[in-house]
Amino acid sequence: MFINFGKVLTSSAALKLNRVGIGEGVGILFVYTMLSALISSVSIVRRSLMFIVGGIIQFLNLVTLTGRGSVIFSTATVAMFYLVYNKKSNMVWKKILLLAIFAVFMYFTLIYLSTIFPWVSRFNLRNMLSDPSVVGNHIFVGRFDLYKESLKVFSQRVFFGAGYGEVYSHNIFLETMSCFGIVGLILFCAFLASFFAEAIKSDMVRKRDVLCNIAFAIFVFLLLYRQTSFSWANHKALMFFAGAVVSEISRSNS
To answer: What's the pLDDT tens digit per position in 126-141?
Structure first.
């Protein structure tokens, strides 16, 4: 299975098709496998296997797709949910220590991997801040350029925006502002506020239902990922997992 998975990731046709989209799918798999290993109550053998699978998935993501958004946001999501899943004070400090050790380990791992796979140096902070895909140059339009253009469009059409599909911002909030104006932004923020409030106070999340928490975590990952990628035409996965969480909550309450 993993050999075929690796072939799909490393094939030039797949990478040219939609590397960001593939990164989204890989990120979802990573969040699912790692949280299944870290917060579920299944046997230690099964959890260990899930942890190994998650590590392999993220390694392939790192060295083949080199998707910074997918790697960074999926890892941050797993760390965040792992930290808050058990709120016992003694457990929190242990988890913070483990996450700190993991961060140091990843730092030196990235340095080592960049000597074998030079393209991994894309994760270096200095390289990220000078990457044309981020800051732009005389050839490429960077994300900062798109952000500035989105704010410019919003300032010109504050109330209702320029219309669906007229602006591509690489940021879900900026694109909502520029395409749908302040009205659309308020509606979208109201949706998010309602969703998070309902999810956080629900019995399934508070009582640590594993699958519901993982679905909630995947939604958070997808929302974070959309701060640097995708347009409004590509938010189906985000809405799917929002619906999955709401559906589970409604089912538990009925």
So the answer is: 877 777 777 777 677 8
